[in-house]
Amino acid sequence: MVTEEVKSGKVLLAEPFMLDPNFKRSAVLLCEHGPEGSVGFIMNKPLNMRIDELIEDFPDFNGEVFFGGPVQTDTIHFLHNLGDLLDDSVLVAPGVYWGGDFDKLKFLIASNLVEEANIRFFVGYSGWSEGQLHDEMSYGSWIVAGMDSNYLFKLQPKELWQQVMYDKGNAYTVISQIPEALSWN
How far is Cα 13 from Cα 101, in angstroms, rounded to an integer? Predict the structure, then answer.
């Protein structure tokens, strides 16, 4: 079975039996990966909260907030498909950008130039120190998959882990069908 290389723009899928509640059945978009460490955001853990409820001076906006990971949960991050419309954003994968000028983002939202389907907000992030992700990969904690912007902007979060796993094909199609809670009757 060919394994994909761990690099920015890839999805890390938690192995099916991972018990860590932060990452159980998670699909993490890796936004930065290098010798010093890695940063990503869990794409499929909604917090049932709107961004305008979380940030006091934010324009009225029905943008859903997700749990990005257990690191610095007092910070807000965002992924979007606005491209060059939002200054200082970083291309992570085709059709997916990370961050950018927050004041301009608020202006674009207030001007109705950004819709909820264009952006995802995250509380905290997933981070790995130097060598940590490599170690977790060697233990089999993560499965690497390709990223498609539809995963982030079109799919329902509860379907994401299973769909990305299924899209890898071969044995992963079978793994995607493993129920979240197994019963040993």
Answer: 29
Residue 133, C-beta contacts closer than 8 angstroms, at least 6 positions apart? 6, 33, 37, 38, 142
**Amino acid sitting at position 119:** I
Phi/psi of residue 37, each to 5°?
150, -170
Where do the domains of the chain lie, and which CATH numbers do they carry?
11-49+62-77+119-175 (3.40.1740.10)
Backbone angles phi, psi at 64, to 5 degrees: -75, 145
Dihedral sign for Cα atoms in the order 30, 31, 33, 36: negative
> Which positions ≥6 away from 86 have C-beta within 8 Å?
80, 97, 100, 101, 104, 105, 108
Q: pTM for the complete prediction?
A: 0.92
Rounded percentage of the chain residues whose pLDDT exceeds 70: 96
Which tokens is 76 given? 């807000």
Q: Are 52 and 71 in contact (CB under 8 A)?
A: no
In whole angstroms, give the CA distance from residue 125 to residue 1.
30
pLDDT digits (tens, 9 = 90+) for 117-136: 999 999 999 999 999 999 99
Task: Report yes or no: 76 and 122 within 8 Å, Cβ to Cβ.
Answer: yes
State CA 127 to chain mean position distance: 12
Sign of torsion, CA 134 139 141 143?
Answer: positive
